[in-house]
Each structure stands twice: as C-alpha cells, then as structure tokens.
Amino acid sequence: MAIVHIATKAISRKAGQSAVASAAYRAGVILKDERYDKSHDYSKKSGVMSADIILPTALKAKGLMVSREEIWNKAEHVEGRTDSRVAREWLINLPHELDEAKRKALAHEFTQVLADKYNIIADCAIHSPSKKEVARGADPRNYHAHILVTTREAKMGADGELFFDKQLKIPFEWSNDKRKTKGLQSSIKEIKDIRQLWVDMANKALVGLDVMELDARSFKAQGIDRLPTVKMGVDATNMERKGINTENGNKNRAIHVINQRREFTKQSNRKAADERHTVEYTEWATERVEWATNRHRQIDKRLDDSQQRIERIKRDTEWAVREDQAISKVIEGSSKRSGRNSRNAEWAVKRTERILRLVGTREPDLKTREESVAEFDQQAKAVNRLIADRANAVATAPSPFDDNARRARAASIAKEQREFDTAAENYDRKTRYYSGRIESVNKQIRHIRLGYAHKLLERHKEDNRLIVGWRESSDDYPNKYDYRQSDLLDAFADKFKLDKASSEDYREYHKRLGDTFDSPFFKENKAIMDLLRDPKAERDQYDAIKTHYDTFIEELDNRYKTIDSTMKNRLGNISDVSRRTAESLSAPSYLKELDNYINNEATADENKALAIKCKSDKINRTCQLLKNGMIGLKDIREADKRQTHSEALQVSSNNFMTSYGNELSNDEQKAINDGLSAVNQPVRSNTMSYKR
What we know:
The protein has 692 residues and is of the alpha+beta class. The chain has helices at 19-27, 57-61, 68-77, 100-118, 131-135, 176-181, 187-205, 219-222, 234-241, 247-359, 369-394, 403-457, 483-495, 506-516, 519-524, 526-533, 535-571, 575-599, 605-631, 639-660, 666-679, and strands at 6-12, 30-33, 38-41, 48-54, 85-93, 122-127, 144-149, 154-156, 162-164.
C-alpha cells in the first residue's frame, strides 16, 4: 500500500552543511566546492536511479543552460552569513506500485510545480534501497526522491548567465512574522498545502490501480485511532539494522504495541457490539414472535366468531323456512275453515227460509237472507284479518314468499362463507410464515445461548482471563476477565454444575448445556450473561457502583481512625495494647454502621456483598484484637494502667459479644476464650533494679 511521506528541511551552514556536498551526495557524482576548495566524491554511492536539474519554465523558455556544479556553487556564493540556509530539501516517498518511468515522471512533475511556484531551480534525485540496505533490513519498496531547491529566485542576466538575488529570499524562507505582515499564511499551512498538492498528484497517477487513495490528513483528522511513529533518522536506522536498540526504535516498538492493543480492543468492541446487536435483535424477534402468537390467537377467535355467526345465520334461515311452512299450513287451514263456514251459512239461510215458509209468517227480529250473508262475510273477513295478524306476529323477517328476500339471504350466507374461507387461507399462510420465522429465530437464539456457554467453558484460557503472577492488568487487556470476574464465573459454573465431569460423554454434556441455557435461565442470570458478552462494560459498571462503597468505607475508616487515636491517647498510649483496646472499643459502632449500610434499600447488591465481606473481616479482626489485647495486659508494668486497660477490654468484650456473639465462628470464639484465659494468668512482676 502506498504511503504518504513528504518532509522538508533546510540545508544550513549553521549545521555544518554545504549545498554542493548535499547535491553531490544525492546525485551520486563528483562536485567541486569552490567555497571550501575541495571536491565531494560520491560517485560510488549505490541506489541512485536518476538525478536531473529542473529549471523554472520561464528560464527554460529563455534557453538557460547551467550545470549542477555551477548552480550550487552560486547558491553558496550568494549567501554571506555564517549561519545561512543555502538550500532546502523536499523528501518524498514514491509509490512502489508505479513502474520506474511513471515514478520518475511523477517526481519530475511535482518538482516542476515547485520550481514554477517559487521561480527556483530544483535538483531531483530518485533513490532506491541498495542491495546492502535491503540485506540489513531496509524495505525494498522504499523508492523516494530527494528534491534539493534553491532558497533564492533564479534569474538570467543580460549575458545569459545564471544569478541569484542577493537582497531577497523566496517567501517560503521568510519568518512567520514577516509573512504575516505581507498577508501570507504561516509556513506550516503552506507546507500542508504542498503536502496536499503532492497527495493529489500521486492519487492522479495511481488512478486505475487497485490501490487505496492517499490521504494527507493526520490519523486523528481521519478518525483513525492510531499513534503515529516517530522519525528514526539515519543513525538510528543503521543502528537498528545492526541489532542495536535505540531510543526512537524503542518508542516506535512501544507505539506499535499500543496500536496493536487499540486495534485488538477495537475489534473486540466491534465484536461485543455485534453480539449486543444480535441479543437485541433476538429480544426484538422474541417480542415479534409473541406478538404474532397473540395475533394468531386473535385471528383464531375472530374465525371462530365468524364460523359461529355463519352457523347461527344458517339456523335462523332454517327456522324461517320452517315458520314459512307452518304459516302456509295455518293459512291453508284458515281458508278451508272459511269455505266451510260459508257453506254452513248458506245452509242455515236455506233452512231458515224453509222454516219461514212452513210457518207462513216472518218475525220482526229475524234477519233476511241478504243480511245473514253479509254477517257471515264480515265474520270471514275478521278471521282472515286475524290470520294475517298472526302471520305478521310470527314472522318478523321478510315474507317467506318473497323470492328477492330469499335470494338476498342466500347471497349473504355465500358472502360470509367466502370471507370465512379467505380469512382461513390467509391465516394458514401467515401461520406457515411465522412458524418458519419462529423456527429460524429459535435456532439463532439457541446458537447465541450455546455461544455464551462456550465462552463460559473457555474462561480459563490465557487469552480470556488475567493470569495470576504475570502482572497483567485490565487496563492493558480490557477484554479479559479480571480476577473478580473469574471468581464470579467459577462460582456460577460450580453452582449450576456447568463444567464437564470427567466421566461425562461429550455429546451428553453438550446436550445438557443446551438444555440448561434456555430462555428462563438466560433471563434469570442476565448479569452473568452481560459479563460473558462484554467484560469491560461489566467492569466499568461494577467500578461505577463500587465507587459509592469505596467512598463510604474511606470516610468510615478515616472517622474511626480519629476516634481510635483519641481513645488510645486517653488510655495512655502504651505500646500496641492501647491501640488494640481502642480499636476493639469502637468496633461495635463500626459494625453497626456497616449493618445500616447493608440494610439500606438504596444500597446496590454489589456493594451489599462487599460490605458483608468487610463486616466478616472486621468481626474476625476484632476477635484477634481482644485476644491479643488481653494477652498483652501482662506486659503492662504499671498496675493502674493495667487495670484501666483490663476494664476497657472487659467493656469492649461485653459489648461486642452482646451484639455479635451469635455470628462468631468456632475459631473466632476460641480466640475470645484464649484472651479471657490469659487475663487470669499471673501478672509479670513490676520489680526493677537500678544501679546507683
């Protein structure tokens, strides 16, 4: 891959340099230095592929002819100061992807731009690593160009000879203050512009090749999290090639290690992010599956309701048909009865007439034949009206004799049936689709869960956990499990018996793991799963939570340190006995504050566990303090002070045993008893002899 390297430096007398010597070395030729009256012979230098003088276009058009020796001797001659900058060098890396002719053309094109921009003369020498340099470790692709340029404008006199202006250097060599007064940008910005110019020209030459474009920006500007290496220099490079470590070499090796760690961390973070995305997708897919399942239940219910509605409509239709038939029979029976009543009425009229003829007279209240017929007609109409009212009361639906109504009911039933069939078909299709999705998601979820199980099983590998005794730190290896996390994972694996037994078949073990890491198990142990997925994130979260505990313990220790110091002074500050007695006196109060912290609902579970461990250590320490304090009483020679300490230890022991005696282990109880036994032993004599 082509790299961007373009640098510039001044050739200065102050540094003991000569423009003639510099040109001879870079071109690999012999040049006579008139100022110092000596010849510089670098004709045996290897690796010089070409060396050419590049004139400004304006001087080239005038036909100026000048040699390398003349150019640089005149450049030296025009400078009068002992610390003058006599030349400037631009060093550029040439893309190794180009062939020799294209590399040379690119270097000359860039050099011509510099010559025309500042109206200066340039000496462009193209180098390649020599065989000796490659054998010593140099990169064989390190093609580069040394472009030596004048610091003053080149001009052509009336006699056709080259000369340089003694009064003024080119603007590039001006100080930043002078550039600012002339309205020019700083030299740093101008160098960046020239650097970008070179990158643009190189990218143009690389078009058509399968090469990443060059970028002149810094790693930071490009968004690349990588430290740049420092420049080695010729001497350091030669020493490194000989196997001698140098300061710059050590720096670059350290930078290389840091960059490797950053890249590893970046890849690990990217992997963790992918896993988080997968877990989030899995959770989303699970929610979608649950939604689809609920949706299926709703569709099932709606289909059942539709089917019941269709069956109800069918039953209603059958009932209506039966009612139609029943009404038809009633009407038919009513018609028969009406005919029979009419015949009876005629018979009654005829019989009345015959009776009247036999009697020969007519009663005033007897009705005529016409009146009787009319009365019977009214009765028949009343019967028919009653039948019609009955029919309307029985059949609230449209008339069963209406063909249009029957066809409408049949069409409605057919439509309901079609809707039911369509809904059932859609339901079957969606069921097949979601069943496939559910099966795919379940496989993916199972694969992810087995991945977590695999991580748990590989927790002991060196690449996954900090190794005890290797002085490894989580700062250097953020994606490894630290010692606390390793203990958590070991306890978790032991609790659920997740490690493989020596006699267990591998296939049975794999199946047992797969059955164990199901969805409820995954959710119930989310904290451990988060630890397996991203140790660094879990560590950061733990440290953030633990900060509250650390602050609490630090304040508690500082407060009781002051209390113990005051109490020790009151007791007389007699060796370690006073310190132990004072600390044992304050222990119950210290433990009570720990209990309050543990029982506080606002305290995080992680901090509660730390506080419980601290309480256990404090109880054990207090038992040892009481034991050693009671044993140490015999070493106090003054009776009054011994009595004071004995009483204080007795009070401390009573208070401690009253509050926490039930929580002592057998060893801790034994320590208290050993101390009490020591109190009853004879006290060392106070008798002391003095020499007079």
